[in-house]
């Protein structure tokens, strides 16, 4: 992670400018909903987001992007975006979180972007995965990656004043989670499996009065940083620990100066005090409605947040088809 410069911090609500980027990415991706072509859906979202990002008044560096430059010609890690004017910021993007969800027409696919002061976002380096937990503000003090999961679930039930059978864990449906699944079921708690999309899952888990109490699992480190940005704004807590997939990745992490035993909390993942987050639904989901097309154009629903003010906005927008086409060309045809 780079050192923070002495440049001025963001002094305006950039989230209200960033929402345009997630709206247009969502609209472009949604043309591919259910068509079984996740690369095309992701490419459309990347192109549309990149088009809009160049209009935002900022000097941004992509910390969490689509990958390395040779593999991701746009929105790659290290790319400079914006019009080059202050403020200097870090950017985390997932133009289409849940590419497979979109391609299969399944719920909870999102277009997501987050922004914070330059040098304040955690760069995961070679570590693709991390073990993570997230929950709401009222249960945040109970998170512990070293405590047996069954014990944590019992403490959650006690804190809520409910039987443990009322506690719900949301997690990715992966073979690597088989042991944890047994532990959760032996404890008597319930599980909600998801095929993809743990940024959306983290948002559900940290929302007060949600049917989900806890996000647990080994998922993407970039998604952990994006989730932390949202949680800095909306409240709650996330903790994580890097999870090297093999000895090669473990060695690369050590050579890069990463401590794979370190517990990474919300402030370690995103250290900035002025964090912006925007997500727009692509397909219908728990948090947001997906894109809907009409004869006149399209409608979108977005969640837009800023940590410094604690403001959380839910924005419903109507987009005119001829004007969209003039702006985005064939992406909306």
Brief synopsis:
This protein has helices at 15-30, 38-53, 99-104, 149-160, 178-187, 198-206, 221-234, 247-255, 266-269, 321-328, and strands spanning 59-64, 80-81, 88-97, 110-117, 129-135, 168-172, 190-194, 214-220, 237-242, 264-265, 276-281, 292-293, 297-306, 311-320. The protein starts with 14 loop residues before the first helix and ends in a 5-residue tail after the last helix. It has 333 residues and is of the alpha+beta class.
Structure in words:
Helix content is 31%, strand content 26%. The strands form two sheets. Strands 1, 2, 3, 4, 11, 12, 13 and 14 form an eight-stranded mixed β-sheet that branches. A six-stranded mixed β-sheet has the order 7-6-8-5-9-10, with helices on both faces. Mean pLDDT is 92; it is low at 1-5. Helix 4 crosses helix 5 (178-187). It has helices at residues 15-30, 38-53, 99-104, 149-160, 178-187, 198-206, 221-234, 247-255, 266-269, 321-328, and strands spanning 59-64, 80-81, 88-97, 110-117, 129-135, 168-172, 190-194, 214-220, 237-242, 264-265, 276-281, 292-293, 297-306, 311-320. The termini are far apart. The protein has ten helices and 14 strands. 49% of the residues are buried. Strand 13 and strand 14 form a beta hairpin. The chain is globular, with a radius of gyration of 19 Å. It is α+β, with helices and mostly antiparallel strands.
């Amino acid at each position: 992670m780079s050192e923070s410069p002495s440049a001025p911090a963001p002094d305006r609500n950039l989230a209200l400018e960033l929402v345009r980027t997630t709206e247009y990415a969502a609209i472009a991706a949604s043309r591919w909903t259910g068509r079984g072509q996740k690369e095309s859906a992701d490419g459309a979202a990347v192109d549309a987001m990149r088009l809009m990002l160049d209009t935002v008044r900022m000097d941004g560096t992509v910390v969490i992007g689509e990958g390395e430059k040779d593999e991701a010609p746009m929105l790659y890690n290290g790319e400079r975006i914006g019009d080059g004017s202050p403020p200097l910021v870090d950017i985390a993007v997932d133009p289409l979180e849940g590419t497979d969800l979109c391609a299969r027409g399944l719920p909870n696919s999102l277009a997501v972007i987050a922004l914070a002061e330059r040098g304040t976002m955690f760069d995961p380096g070679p570590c693709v995965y991390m073990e993570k937990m997230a929950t709401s503000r009222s249960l945040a003090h109970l998170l512990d990656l070293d405590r047996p999961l069954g014990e944590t679930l019992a403490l959650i039930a006690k804190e809520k004043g409910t039987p443990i059978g009322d506690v719900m864990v949301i997690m990715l449906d992966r073979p690597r989670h088989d042991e944890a699944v047994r532990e959760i079921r032996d404890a008597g708690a319930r599980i909600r499996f998801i095929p993809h999309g743990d940024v959306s899952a983290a948002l559900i888990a940290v929302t007060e009065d949600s049917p989900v109490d806890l996000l647990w699992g080994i998922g993407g480190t970039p998604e952990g940083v994006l989730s932390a940005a949202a949680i800095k704004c909306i409240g709650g807590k996330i903790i994580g620990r890097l999870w090297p997939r093999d000895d090669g990745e473990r060695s690369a992490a050590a050579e890069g100066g990463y401590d794979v035993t370190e517990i990474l909390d919300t402030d370690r993942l995103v250290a900035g005090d002025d964090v912006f987050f925007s997500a727009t639904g692509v397909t219908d989901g728990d948090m947001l409605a997906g894109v809907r097309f009409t004869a006149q154009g399209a409608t979108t629903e977005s969640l837009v947040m800023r940590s410094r003010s604690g403001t959380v906005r839910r924005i419903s927008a109507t987009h005119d088809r001829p004007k969209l086409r003039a702006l985005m060309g064939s992406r909306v045809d």
